Amino acid sequence: AQSVTQPDIHITVSEGASLELRCNYSYGATPYLFWYVQSPGQGLQLLLKYFSGDTLVQGIKGFEAEFKRSQSSFNLRKPSVHWSDAAEYFCAVEWGAQKLVFGQGTRLTINP
Amino acid sequence: GAVVSQHPSWVICKSGTSVKIECRSLDFQATTMFWYRQFPKQSLMLMATSNEGSKATYEQGVEKDKFLINHASLTLSTLTVTSAHPEDSSFYICSASGGESYEQYFGPGTRLTVT
Predict the structure, then answer these.
(1) What pLDDT score was predicted for residue B99?
(2) Does B44 contact chain A (CB < 8 Å)?
(3) Chain A residues lying within 8 Å of B46, measured CB to CB
(4) Any residues with CB less than 8 A from the CB of B2 and at least 6 apart, and which?
(5) How far apart are CA A11 and CA B60, in angstroms?
(6) Positions of chain B with pLDDT under 50
């Protein structure tokens, strides 16, 4: 069965530091992969998605993610975080007809 | 960008009563809407998928008689939690997709507390 694992429940980084959030998936076919951000009082916002092609995907707000089939990973990165990046981040895989399976989420805290 | 709203944003109800949650696409026609449930500090779990004018398709383990979903128009879907119990307390999130974009747009969620 399809599944998504985000190994880090909570990550704290200093403002201006680089960030990498990990995501591993289990899926039998070529996956459609997504990263969403959830802020309090707001709906999930799509940061970026991978369907096919270039394995390095650029998203909004300066985020990027790299699809590595050999490692079944789709890690999210940002070279320099801002205090406004503090939020909950979810990785997701689509397994059919737009049905999404989400990881457990990683809560990001930014130290000033 | 596309906006999805939910109403109410939070609701408290007594055990045994029913509560209705609305999900609206404000600036696009949503041919498909999805309902998710999110427990505290946990992931979103897909409950059901609804297409306008059709019966909803429920995921395994979701009681269709307890969680009634109606998608009567291209801009509105409702989730009714019938005979609510404390274990139904959760954060319910809808999403909608339609038009040219393949993307799902998420509502801000509704927090349900059953006392």
Answers:
(1) 65
(2) yes
(3) 99-101
(4) B25, B26, B27, B28, B96, B101, B103, B105
(5) 33
(6) none
